[in-house]
Design brief:
The complex is a heterodimer of chains A (165) and B (173).
Chain A lengths: L1 H23 L3 H16 L7 H12 L2 E11 L3 E6 H15 L3 E12 L5 E12 L6 E12 L2 E10 L4
Parallel strand pairs in A: 1-6
Antiparallel strand pairs in A: 1-2, 3-4, 4-5, 5-6
Helix pairs in contact in A: 3-4
Chain B lengths: L12 H7 L3 H22 E5 L14 E5 L13 E5 L6 E8 L4 E5 L2 E4 L2 E2 L13 E5 L4 E5 L13 E4 L3 E5 L2
Antiparallel strand pairs in B: 1-2, 2-11, 3-4, 3-11, 4-9, 5-6, 5-8, 6-7, 9-10
Classes of the chains: A alpha+beta (165), B alpha+beta (173).
Chain lengths: 165, 173
């Protein structure tokens, strides 16, 4: 009985150790999933948010992208829009945060595929976006490409995927 | 002194209602029911809540339905089927009607759908439509899907060619 108890205790300690290891030293996939979650939070703002708060969020949003990042969006009814580099992304995000009354962004069904070199990763997801305080929302299949820059994962490419061509 | 032939005391009625006369059998039933529900609603019939106007008047926002994920195990999607097309996963899906099959061309003229140049009879389209669209060809792995509500502007209606592997299943009800 004593041996069995020790054995169970050992397994519990090992499981706890493994969990703590994944918390303090997360793998690239977990880091990227976390990045996607915080990206959605950063891109979300309410109608009560002040201009200062919105500007701070826009500035934070740019920090998720690499210097040479490219964004190509082809959303239904809005045509194709391409942004190249952090400066263009910064301008567009400031304009978007200022013009929209409110925005809520969710990334659903996030799938992360790490590259063979462990320096790049492809992320596919479904973006659900609520504009203003409307209950209506738009959905869009998205593809993100991340690259590792000095121990940090930054977005190098964003593009919309046409589910129905 | 108690009588040996006396029957055991009857359990309280509340206990009988809540856990039955034989708690062990009740527990087994609950476990079997939970496992059956989990397997059914996770892998076979995917519960969905309809949101949007693109399938009006056949389906309306707020209706609850299920996606039969086993519908196309034995045969491929048929014209007229209402299918769910997944995006990156199963959290959000498009619900559309199949009108074009692989290898066919689909066009719209004066609000009517044409398949390989022939007018398609669509009794489910009840709302007025004035769509115009040049013919598009479906590849051997593609199905053309569109909603029943053709009264909205063509540019605002999500429609098009869906890859076979994106069709998650057929609407159950």
């Amino acid at each position: 009985m004593k041996i069995a108890f020790r054995f169970v205790l050992l397994i519990a300690a090992a499981a706890l150790g493994f969990w703590l290891w994944t918390v303090f030293f997360p793998g690239p996939e977990k880091v990227i999933r976390g990045k996607m979650a915080t990206l959605a939070t950063t891109a979300t703002f309410g109608s009560a948010d002040s201009n200062l708060n919105r500007a701070a969020k826009a500035a934070n949003l740019v920090g998720y992208f690499s210097d040479d990042a490219q964004i190509s969006l082809d959303a239904l009814g809005h045509g194709v829009r391409t942004l190249s580099g952090r400066d263009e992304i910064r301008e567009a995000s400031y304009a978007g945060f200022a013009a929209l009354p409110a925005l809520k962004v969710e990334f659903l069904d996030v799938t992360v595929s790490l590259g063979a070199d462990q320096q790049t990763a492809d992320v596919s997801c479904t973006a659900r976006v609520y504009v203003g305080n409307s209950k209506d929302y738009g959905v869009q299949e998205m593809h993100f490409q991340f690259k590792r820059v000095e121990k940090n994962w930054l977005i190098s490419r964003v593009e919309t995927v046409k589910t129905l061509s | 002194m108690s009588n040996a032939t006396e029957p055991p005391p009857r359990p309280h009625w509340l206990r009988v209602v809540l856990i039955g006369r034989r708690p062990r059998a009740t527990l087994v039933r609950i476990v079997v029911l939970a496992v059956t529900c989990f397997i059914t609603f996770k892998f076979i019939l995917l519960p969905i809540r309809i949101d949007g106007i693109s399938m009006q008047p056949t389906y309306h926002t707020g209706q609850v339905n299920c996606i039969n994920r086993l519908a196309y195990l034995r045969h491929e999607p048929q014209r007229g089927d209402i299918v769910s097309v997944r995006l990156a996963g199963n959290s959000v899906m498009f619900m559309k009607r199949v009108i074009g099959l692989p290898g066919e061309t689909v066009a719209f003229h004066e609000g009517h759908a044409y398949i390989n140049g022939k007018l398609l009879d669509e009794p489910y389209v009840k709302l007025p439509c004035d769509w115009e669209m040049a013919p598009v060809l479906c590849s051997p792995t593609q199905y053309y899907v569109v909603g029943d509500n053709r009264s909205m502007p063509i540019d605002l209606h999500t429609k098009g060619r869906a890859e076979r592997d994106h069709i998650a299943g057929k609407l159950f009800l």
